Each structure stands twice: as C-alpha cells, then as structure tokens.
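Troubleshooting entry. The earlier prediction with iron/sulfur cluster gave an output that would not parse, so I re-checked the input for stray whitespace and re-submitted. Clean input:
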Amino acid sequence: MTTPSSYSLSDYERPSLHAPEGAEAILLHSCCAPCAGEIMLAIKASGIQQTIFFYNPNIHPAEEYEMRKSENKRYCDKLGIPFIDADYDTDHWFERVKGLENEPERGARCTVCFDIRFERTALFAHEHQFPLISSTLGISRWKNMAQICASGEHAAAPYQDVSYWTLNWRKQGGSQRMVELAKQEHFYQQEYCGCVYSLRDSNRHRQACDRPKIKRLSQFYGEKNVSLIARSTL
Ligand code: SF4
C-alpha cells in the first residue's frame, strides 16, 4: 500500500467501509482526537453518517479532560461532524471501579471502564435512533481489541435496535494513517491512557526507568516545545 504524505478527504484512498446490515448512520464513541481522526475520515469517506459521542468520565484531571475534548471537537468542527458533549460524571466512574484501583492496564478495571462508556453510548443510540455504535478506542495498539469488542457487544445487547460494530480499525493501514493524521493536525499528544491510576502507573514506570514524570498538556504531534499559547493559534 502506498503512503501519501498527508491525508485529506480529497486524496483518501482507503477502500470503502460497509456498515453491518447496511446501516446508514453510526454513533461513534470517541476517546480523543488522535484515535478518532482516522476513523472519522474513514467513515466520512464511506458515505456513512456519523455523530461523535464524547463520554469519558475516566479522564483525570479535569484540565486533561477539557483538552482532549476540545481537540476532538475542533476536528469535528473542521469536518462538519456533529459532536455530542456528554456528562463528565466522575463520581459514577470512581464508584464503578472501586476495588480495582491496582489492576494493571488491560485488566478488570479497564473492562469496567469500557462498560461504563459503552453502556451510555448504547443508551443514547437507542434513545436517538442510531442503529449502530462503535468506539475509537479500538485503534490504539495499547488496547486489547477483543476486550473492547466484548464490552461493546455487551453494552448493545439490551437493545434490539442497536448493534456494536466490531471492525478492527487498525487494519488496512489504519494505525499508520492515525499517526500521520495526528501529525498533520497537530493533535494534543497525551502520554497516559486517561484515569488517575494510569497516570500513577505510567509515572511509576518512568521513575523505574530513570525518566522524568509526565508533563501533561505540553506535547503535540508533529511539534516540539510548543507552548499552549502558540498552540491555540494553530
Ligand atoms: S487505564 Fe485507561 S481504559 Fe483502563 S481504567 Fe484507566 S482510563 Fe480506563
């Protein structure tokens, strides 16, 4: 497969996606702009109507949440894609993961975290007549695709009119285009999954490797040493 130096809707070469059962609209749960960008383009280029559902009460702290959300909204606005700004109900998230604070990434806490986010997505889809849901979480190589799909299907199961699309977004060059697009758009580059426990564990790992702690809100794809003030003018 050839790799264009940049990606836009006009030079998009990916084969068309075919939604299950010919669904013409999807409610796409999104975790952040870098993961969502390539998937949003792929869906748009395939002529499937999409709405982004940003529901991520796992993200800690609030400034980090606001940054990830605003980056995602910025790209939705650029592509003319509707963006649903859902609740930041952190109390609910902490209540559900209680007792799982020391689970490793990809463990039981992550399953609950996916369940929380996909249950809300499926409910919104049911209430607003979206026949199909999926999540951008699946494109990250740090995630367990089978774990994500199982949570997605579990969340959609109570609704006869909603199904979860288990497409592997990483395939057909998806992972590569995800990174290229993030650089092209200068998306904010987070260095931990999102919750307070992933921040803690990432910093512990860095400390063990004699590396400095994570400096949040400071890194952007395709740029070095860009201040937030300079970033806001891009
Ligand atoms: S590590 Fe990531 S997926 Fe797992 S619980 Fe934390 S935020 Fe959720």
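This one parsed fine. The chain has eight helices and five strands.
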